[in-house]
Design a protein that fits this description.
7-stranded antiparallel sheet, Rossmann fold, c-terminal autoproteolytic domain of nucleoporin nup98, alpha/beta, globular, binds S-adenosyl-L-homocysteine, 7-stranded mixed sheet, 470 residues, 3 domains
């Protein structure tokens, strides 16, 4: 089975740097189920193609059989594995191009961070649900999709199409994103069991889906299929997707947890409800200048920029990768001069004083405090409420009591959370902070209110007596 990646970015041979595989060499890598060969059928300054060929060894595949290996059920020896791209190709690709997938490239970091013209071809791809599914999965990611059904037998057209397609994707995409998308979507398209199992599979999905999965209209389908329809894992993954902003440290934006939790018509993801609630509140507060502290990948900022009454908007985060995502989302590189003056992004840690945090009508700390180590929380309070002193501060954080409504969720909603507060704990914290720094505070819930455990997200609104300070 074969997958090719082509670029016409010039010099095209830079693809070798991005993939960490030299264009003049043919290299082979052994996998538990076969051998991968990487070679470049063409490599000129104008156009360069890397090919990844996987030779599946059916005997090795069968011998490596265990509960964690693919294809352990039927047809171990007689199957399409040697010929059709599948989850095995995804696994092999992920392994051989692991550095490229992480987006790191010491010698060409700028290029690794940039969207470049790419063509990806998979000549034989099993496509559960037919060519239309390939369009639904790759189309929203900005690819032009050609998925041509392959006839079952050319000699007998009346037999109709096989379940395979010839896939060709063209687009201007960051290479790491393209590889991560393939890593997730090849097994999603594949009929047969994916090479997986175990709770870390959710982490893999979160990492590979970073920046694109959460906002994908088919996030639900992708998650279900990727996790092999394992109900509990799927529910946990969807809850985590819904919970997190699509920021970078493993946190991704929304999907439909409640789709699963309360099987009903499609619902607004919790993450989107949070953005909506915060935006409405900023309008109610008549804030004109707003800073989003710990803005992650900039989803809230993306909303704020489309609202003209916000005349000055800033986002800051400790993670430069998150800020890169935010810059891309906001198209900072294509902003008019006026817009660029209106919107600012900068890196900073909220536990250190920084004058750039000052001078805003309102500051937002959305799903951020729970990422701070408790001994450092006092520093954040001083920096935000004591020094930056915005006219209003909006804080959102998970309501730990609600976690029992996420079936299958054990522990906290995200591995980076240092704590999750009950409603009493949040009330106590916010009352103390308000009293210490001279703010009034009011609390509200976001998301579906449960009679017993409250709403999934809790929000506190701190306002100064004077109101806006700008
Ligand atoms: N506010 C966004 C992102 C929440 S995820 C949203 O709701 O979608 C938490 C964010 O806080 C991450 O982007 C993380 O990088 C950031 N963060 C964590 N600790 C921080 C610190 N000490 N200073 C600034 N940002 C921090």
């Amino acid at each position: 089975m074969l997958l090719t990646v082509t670029t016409t970015h010039q010099p095209a041979t830079d693809l070798g740097y991005l993939l960490h595989k030299h264009p003049d060499r043919v290299q082979s890598f052994s996998q538990s189920f076969g051998t991968v060969t990487v070679f470049y059928p063409e490599s000129t300054d104008e156009r360069c193609t890397a090919a990844l060929m996987l030779d599946v060894d059916p005997v090795r595949l069968a011998r490596s059989r265990g509960k964690n290996t693919p294809d352990f059920s039927l047809a171990q020896y007689v199957n399409d594995r040697s010929y059709a791209a599948s989850s095995l190709l995804g696994v092999a690709m992920a392994d051989v191009f692991s550095t490229a997938r992480s987006g790191r490239c010491r010698s060409r970091q700028d290029l690794a961070d940039s969207a470049i013209p790419l063509e990806i071809a998979v000549p034989v791809l099993p496509c559960r649900g037919g060519a239309e599914v390939a369009h639904r999965l790759f189309g929203p990611l900005g690819w032009t999709v050609e998925a041509e059904p392959i006839p079952l037998d050319e000699a007998f057209p009346e037999w109709g199409d096989s379940r395979y397609v010839r896939l060709r994707l063209t687009g201007v995409v960051r290479l790491a994103d393209a590889l991560n998308q393939l890593y997730v979507l090849l097994p999603v398209l594949d009929e047969s069991k994916h090479y997986w199992q175990g709770p870390d599979e959710i982490d893999k999905l979160m990492r590979s889906g970073e920046g694109w999965l959460a906002t994908h209209p088919e996030a639900d389908l992708i998650t279900r299929r990727y996790l092999g329809r394992q109900g509990v894992l799927t529910r946990v993954a969807l809850a985590r997707l819904a919970e997190l902003g699509d920021d970078v440290e493993g946190a991704i934006a929304p999907a439909e947890d409640e789709d699963v939790l309360q099987p009903a018509e499609r619902r607004v993801p919790l993450n989107a409800q949070r953005h909506e609630a915060v935006q409405q509140l900023l309008l109610e507060l008549r804030a004109r200048s707003v800073i989003d502290l710990g803005c992650g990948a900039g989803q809230l900022l993306d909303r704020l920029v489309t609202t003209p009454s916000f005349t000055r908007i800033a986002g800051s985060d400790v993670s430069t990768r998150s800020l890169q995502h935010a810059a891309r989302r906001l198209h900072v590189d294509r902003m008019s001069e006026r817009q660029a003056e209106r919107v600012q992004l900068f890196q900073g840690a909220l536990t250190y004083e920084d004058e750039r945090y000052s001078g805003y009508d309102a500051a937002v700390l959305m799903e951020v405090v729970e990422h701070i180590d408790p001994p450092r929380l006092g520093a954040l309070e001083r920096v935000v409420f004591g020094t930056a002193k915005p006219g209003a501060v909006i804080v959102t954080t998970p309501n730990a009591e609600y976690n029992m409504r996420y079936e299958g969720l054990v522990g906290m909603r995200h591995p980076d959370h240092r704590f999750e507060w009950t409603r009493d704990q949040f009330a106590e914290w916010s009352d103390r902070v308000a009293a210490t720094y001279g703010y009034a505070v009011e609390r509200r819930g976001i998301g579906d209110l449960d009679d017993v455990v409250g709403a999934p997200t809790q929000m506190a609104v701190f306002t100064t007596k004077e109101g806006a300070n700008d």
